[in-house]
Amino acid sequence: MKSPPLLSPCLSWKRMVGVFFLPFILPAFAPRFKQEGSLMLGTAHPPQPRFNWSHLTPLELKNRSVGLGTASTGRGKPHFTLEGHRFLICGGSIHYFRVPREYWRDRLLKLKACGFNTVTTYVPWNLHEPERGKFDFSGNLDLEAFVLMAAEIGLWVILRPGPYICSEMDLGGLPSWLLQDPRLLLRTTNKGFTEAVEKYFDHLIPRVIPLQYRQGGPVIAVQVENEYGSFNKDKTYMPYLHKALLRRGIVELLLTSDGEKNVLSGHTKGVLAAINLQKVQRNTFNQLHKVQGASIDAGVLSDTSQAATSSSL
């Protein structure tokens, strides 16, 4: 008895090809069907952005013009922006000077694997200038290498160069040789202190300039000092540091960081005010709202900055 053919003569090669490509063709029509159905039901939604900028990494973004900024929807929903697009900072701290250089990549990869898109780090003056006039940015103190490695791995960077950083270090990271001058007043515009800061910044900031976002680098923000509101000995000190950074070419978003009760005395005009959080209570953001409400640069940012700074700084 003659066996039946394996393929029916009615099943032409064209039909076979059509069946094969059907799974690839149908998904292209699915959004259209969904949108048309929503229109008929009167439940159409506005088009969603085609790309989530929060997932963008430094090496992927070639054309740059507008760095990290702030914006508001006009309905009390402020947010960060990058290139004018909504941008969520999800950051964690890794201090390069506390981690052996051989483990930098491992630690940064783990941060990235946890879903973070930003790394923050202090810059310790006392380690980079252990003796007056003798600077060290080599080996485990190679700030530039650490920042470039972060970019390679896909992380943005927020720098916290001080000069005072706290960071649970002696003198908050200020070099101990400053104490050799009994007339010098730390964290003020005292001549002896500012002269030392100027020389330090003259060595540090030129290394940071090419690492900035608008220069093609991963640095999207720089913090001015650290928690000065709890010290607050000189009203002219924070404006002085602000100008010192601008004068040397820092063009990315500048911010301050203070405890929730000290933000009024720690912020400075023209710089985004932010707070550190231990826990959230009903009145946690009251002082911050007062500052940001009166600040041109920070006025459109409140809840977003609080959430971002509490997790990333």
Automatic annotation (TrEMBL):
Q: Does the keyword Cell cycle apply?
A: no
Q: Which GO terms describe its molecular function?
A: hydrolase activity, hydrolyzing O-glycosyl compounds
Q: Where does the Glycoside hydrolase 35 catalytic domain start and stop, copy by copy? A: 80-288
A GO biological process held by the record? carbohydrate metabolic process
Keywords tagged on the record: Glycosidase, Hydrolase
Keyword Hydrolase among UniProt keywords: yes
A Pfam family annotated for this chain is Glyco_hydro_35
Read off the InterPro entries from this record: GH, Gly_Hdrlase_35_cat, Glyco_hydro_35_CS, Glycoside_Hdrlase_35
In which family does this protein belong, per the annotation?
Belongs to the glycosyl hydrolase 35 family.
Q: What name goes with this protein?
A: Galactosidase beta 1 like 3
Q: What is the lineage of its organism?
A: Eukaryota, Metazoa, Chordata, Craniata, Vertebrata
